[in-house]
């Protein structure tokens, strides 16, 4: 399984530098995946150090378990959603950690495993579940959501300019028969998007598949709900590294980090702060760190990656 779970860790050197790892520190990889980033973190820990790896994908957990086995009890793997990170730390009786990493990309393994239904490049059942123990699938969304709701998620989560026409085509198609595969959905999308846009705007299914995946796995909701709690679990000087892959995620992270640094809600014309809100640290990255040309050439999926870093007081 470890060999099958192929995933090139994005911005690996930048993450390790950004975490400023202490050999005896406690670190959390909230998106364990195949264990790429985690193996680099664990390699820098001494016997006093500890790494907690969290993922909700059983395939990822098996692959990471094999990859991280040489590090012994320095590494502990937990099956959970990264949004449950604070609860995981409570169960493990860990009050604070020295670093947290979130890599919010879909793993190459998930994209390349056709049967998972994440990719529009192969015909497969419409699934897209990060956690296959969940009951709701992409097929359910495509076949049951009202047209207005489909339009909303395509517009908001996919930033798809043809959200309305696409939703209308989906509803029309499913009235004849249920839409069951990624291939069937791609054909519907090809008919809904003008041909001139298909020639210049990339694959016609890219934004729709992204939107459905985000809705199904509650990706933006989970991220928005958990960021503040994660910042609160950082020890003084602890670092929080987040890699995002589209503008919606990046905006959320940027805004949460900014508010944690400057939480004041006083009117701008007040000469001094009277709200009493205290800064919880500072933003290390005024602008996000982007992959270099060499990395983008070696791993095209890294092109949209952005890394932001926060350091706790």
Radius of gyration computed on alpha carbons: 21 Å
Structural class label: alpha/beta
- Which stretches of 5+ consecutive residues score pLDDT under 50? none
Shape: globular
Count of alpha and pi helical runs: 14
- Distance, first to last CA: 41 Å
Helix-strand sequence? HEHEHEHEHHHHHHHHEHEHE
Mean pLDDT, rounded to whole units?
Answer: 94
Strand order, sheet with most strands? 3-2-1-4-5-7-6
Approximate helicity band? 40-55%
- Proportion of strand residues: 5-15%
Major beta sheet summary: 7 strands, mixed
β-strand number: 7
Overview of the molecule:
With 313 residues, the chain is an alpha/beta fold. Helices cover 43% and strands 14% of the residues. It has helices spanning 12-19, 36-42, 58-68, 85-91, 108-112, 138-144, 147-158, 163-176, 182-192, 195-200, 206-217, 219-232, 247-261, 293-298, and strands spanning 26-29, 50-55, 75-79, 97-103, 234-244, 281-283, 306-312. It has a seven-stranded mixed β-sheet with strand order 3-2-1-4-5-7-6, with helices on both faces.
List the helices and strands and how they pair.
Layout: H1 12-19, E1 26-29, H2 36-42, E2 50-55, H3 58-68, E3 75-79, H4 85-91, E4 97-103, H5 108-112, H6 138-144, H7 147-158, H8 163-176, H9 182-192, H10 195-200, H11 206-217, H12 219-232, E5 234-244, H13 247-261, E6 281-283, H14 293-298, E7 306-312
Parallel strand pairs: 1-2, 1-4, 2-3, 4-5
Antiparallel strand pairs: 5-7, 6-7
Helix pairs in contact: 7-8, 7-11, 8-9, 12-13
Key attributes of the depicted protein:
313 residues; alpha/beta; seven-stranded mixed beta sheet; 14 helices; globular
């Amino acid at each position: 399984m470890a060999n099958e779970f192929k995933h090139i860790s994005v911005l690996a050197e930048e993450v390790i530098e950004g975490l400023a790892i202490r050999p005896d520190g406690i670190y959390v990889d909230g998106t364990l995946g195949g264990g790429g980033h985690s193996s680099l973190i664990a390699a820098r820990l001494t016997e006093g150090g500890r790494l907690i790896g969290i993922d909700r994908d059983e395939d990822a957990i098996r692959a990471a378990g094999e990859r991280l086995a040489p590090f012994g009890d320095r590494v502990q793997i937990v099956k959970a959603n990264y949004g449950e990170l604070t609860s995981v730390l409570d169960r493990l009786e860990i009050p604070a950690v020295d670093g947290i990493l979130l890599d919010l990309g879909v793993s190459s393994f998930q994209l390349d495993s056709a049967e998972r239904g994440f990719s529009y490049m192969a015909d497969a059942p419409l699934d897209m579940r990060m956690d296959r123990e969940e009951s709701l699938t992409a097929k359910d969304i495509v076949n049951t959501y009202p047209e207005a709701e489909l339009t909303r998620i395509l517009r908001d989560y996919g930033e798809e300019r043809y959200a309305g026409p696409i939703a209308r085509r989906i509803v029309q198609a499913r009235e004849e028969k249920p839409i069951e595969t990624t291939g069937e959905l791609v054909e519907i999308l090809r008919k809904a998007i003008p041909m001139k846009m298909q020639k210049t705007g990339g694959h016609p299914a890219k934004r729709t598949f992204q939107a459905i995946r985000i809705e199904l796995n509650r990706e933006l909701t989970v991220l928005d709900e958990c960021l503040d709690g994660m910042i609160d679990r950082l020890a003084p000087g602890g670092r929080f590294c987040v890699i995002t892959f589209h503008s919606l995620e990046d905006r959320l992270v940027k805004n949460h980090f900014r508010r944690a640094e400057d939480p004041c809600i006083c009117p701008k014309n007040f000469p001094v702060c009277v709200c009493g809100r205290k800064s919880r640290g500072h933003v290390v990255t005024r602008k996000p760190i982007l992959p270099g040309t060499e990395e983008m050439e070696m791993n095209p999926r890294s092109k949209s990656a952005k890394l932001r870093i926060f350091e706790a007081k």
